[in-house]
Inverse folding.
């Protein structure tokens, strides 16, 4: 059998192993699963010990899209990893699986033994909970989990030490954090802030993505014609912010705005995480905000935006309803996160009333196509945290070419902001601590940028939670930047971050 013949398509796993199970000569099947980014002697000994348990050894490999081990991981793509493992004579079959865990693969294979390394034996140390789920799955189908006793190496340690996984800026930043913290200290801190009680206030936005395929130029008009393939809806705006922060906190409150007829309410309830308490007003003479974007399916580039909204300020009746909800929830909240998209939800009166409560306040007031020329941060003076991008900062100060650090200090001083955070895309993020007048820098950590929508919102949500809980600034920048990176690596707001996933990335980065 050639190495290529050893590689089984994931969709064929169930049929393939059903035939093996039904054959006259019963075969004992052993199953190993992992990323195996850098094949090393520890993996080889692991596979050998697993093969000794049975007749057939199947190794499943996590597909590239599901590898969450930090920047530029996996180092070797899924096809190279499969090819390397299939070249081992004691490995009978290999399959690349498109899942976050091996649970569905186990269901298809129904192995007699599912093997993991000895370092996975203590299930309490399993951050993601995947090993526990996999153990339940293999036992459900009559198999056993087996922990091999090979010498332990770490692909992450070997890659971090011997390969240029990170840029110089990224390596310098990570090395600085290694001198300050070990992983267990970071894990303990993240676990201790779960009881924080955030209140999110901002517009509900339904992001509608229509994926298209180019047909060509119209025969009669100078127009490029596309075929409409499919449409997907994502929970955007304050919904996305709430989903992100709910991955770190046990309970989250959200106050938002829908249209007069409460359009999309069912979709919203279905797509908000279960630990979010959703409260809203129905804006008079308006519809729920929908931002439709046409996407080229071949490269994920946006072709056109079509927005539906009413930008008029909410009526006095709506204002009274909103203030009532805020006054009821804000005394029970530790901090408030405002995301102001400039669609008439947050009047100066409402903002002043929020500020009167003296609650820790974090703000992202965005410039967009509908509010450019009318947007200003002045009404958010004296906030604890303000997050803006570099373009918004330069627009706010009407300064295109000035030194960025000087502009950051100028705006923070004029608005009396405790922490001013300025994002600059792939150039990273800077944070000014007013108390020390020091500007902290964190490089960007995105592997690949698919869609920038929601990156600032993600960073806002997570860094607010961290700084409110007095997290070290550099650590707060790393964690929130990793969260933002995860956001831009998927389309729209299709995925939300969570503490377990980010901790797993940090664990591998610190090795």
């Amino acid at each position: 059998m050639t190495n290529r013949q050893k590689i089984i398509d994931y969709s064929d796993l169930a049929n393939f192993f059903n035939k093996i199970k039904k054959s006259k000569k019963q075969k004992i099947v052993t199953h190993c699963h992992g990323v195996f980014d850098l094949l090393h002697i520890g993996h080889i000994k692991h596979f050998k010990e697993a093969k000794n348990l049975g007749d057939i050894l199947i190794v499943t490999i996590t597909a590239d899209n599901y590898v969450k081990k930090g920047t530029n991981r996996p180092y070797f793509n899924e096809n190279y990893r499969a090819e390397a493992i299939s070249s081992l004579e004691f490995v009978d079959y290999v399959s690349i699986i498109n899942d976050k865990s091996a649970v569905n693969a186990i269901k298809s294979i129904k192995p007699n033994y599912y093997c993991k390394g000895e370092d996975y034996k203590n299930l309490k140390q399993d951050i993601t909970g995947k090993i526990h789920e996999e153990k339940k799955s293999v036992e459900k189908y009559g198999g056993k989990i087996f922990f091999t006793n090979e010498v332990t190496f770490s692909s992450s340690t070997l890659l971090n030490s011997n390969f240029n996984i990170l840029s110089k800026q990224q390596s310098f930043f990570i090395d600085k954090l290694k001198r300050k913290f070990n992983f267990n200290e970071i894990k303990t801190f993240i676990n201790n802030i779960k009881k924080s009680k955030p209140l999110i206030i901002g517009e509900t936005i339904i992001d509608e993505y229509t994926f298209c395929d180019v047909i060509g130029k119209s025969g009669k008009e100078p127009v490029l014609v596309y075929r409409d393939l499919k449409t997907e809806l994502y929970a955007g705006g304050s919904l996305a912010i709430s989903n992100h922060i709910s991955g770190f906190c046990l309970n989250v409150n959200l106050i938002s705005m829908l249209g007069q007829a409460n359009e999309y309410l069912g979709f919203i309830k279905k797509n908000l995480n279960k630990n979010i308490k959703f409260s809203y007003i129905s804006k008079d003479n308006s519809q729920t905000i929908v931002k439709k974007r046409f996407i080229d399916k071949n490269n994920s580039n946006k072709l056109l935006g079509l927005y539906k909204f009413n930008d008029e300020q909410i009526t006095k009746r709506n204002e009274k309803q909103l203030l009532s909800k805020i006054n009821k929830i804000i005394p029970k909240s530790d901090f408030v996160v405002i995301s102001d998209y400039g669609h008439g939800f947050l009047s100066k009166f409402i903002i002043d009333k929020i500020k009167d409560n003296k609650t820790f306040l974090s703000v992202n007031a965005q410039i967009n196509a509908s509010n450019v020329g009318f947007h200003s941060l002045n009404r958010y003076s004296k906030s604890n945290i303000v997050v803006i991008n570099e373009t918004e900062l330069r627009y706010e100060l009407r300064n295109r070419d000035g030194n960025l650090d000087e502009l950051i200090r100028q705006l923070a001083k004029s608005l009396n902001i405790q922490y001013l955070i300025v994002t600059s895309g792939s150039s990273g993020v800077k944070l000014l601590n007013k108390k020390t007048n020091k500007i902290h820098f964190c490089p960007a950590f995105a592997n690949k940028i698919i869609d920038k929508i929601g990156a600032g919102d993600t960073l806002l949500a997570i860094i607010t939670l961290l700084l409110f809980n007095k997290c070290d600034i550099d650590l707060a920048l790393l964690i929130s930047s990793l969260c933002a990176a995860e956001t831009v690596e998927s389309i729209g707001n299709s995925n939300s971050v969570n503490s377990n996933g980010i901790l797993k990335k940090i664990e591998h980065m610190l090795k």
